[in-house]
Design goal:
This protein is about 30% helix and about 45% strand. By secondary structure, it is α+β, with helices and mostly antiparallel strands.
Length: about 110
């Protein structure tokens, strides 16, 4: 009797573990300052941009592609001349970030 009880508890434990693994593979997180685009193996890149938080996806069919949308600096150094023929070093700092609404098009044309 006790052996059957332990066998049944073991089977139930395996079932719970498999169900937990499937649910865990169906969830993904999008951190703050990031956005995600969903790639579907059947429909291609979806046009909806997913915001911050925990979201569901269909495992093995959909794949989230995460993008960092925070402003990032890019420094461009250059050497130029002045009126009195002196060389001047100038560094231009540009802050850039992608537009969240344009992320599906960016991923489709440029990749990640």
């Amino acid at each position: 009797m006790a052996a059957q009880l332990f066998n049944r508890i073991g089977q139930l434990g395996v079932g719970v573990a498999v169900a937990g693994a499937v649910v865990n593979s169906a969830l993904f997180n999008v951190d703050g300052g990031h956005r995600a685009v969903i790639f579907d193996r059947f429909a291609g890149v979806k046009q909806a941009v997913v915001g911050e938080g925990t979201h569901f996806m269909i495992p093995w069919v959909q794949k989230p592609i995460l993008f960092d949308i925070r402003a990032r600096p890019k420094n461009i150094p250059t050497i130029t001349g002045s009126k009195d023929l002196q060389n001047v070093n100038i560094t231009l700092r540009i802050l850039f970030r992608p537009k969240p609404d344009e992320l599906p098009g960016i991923y489709t044309t440029l990749g990640q």
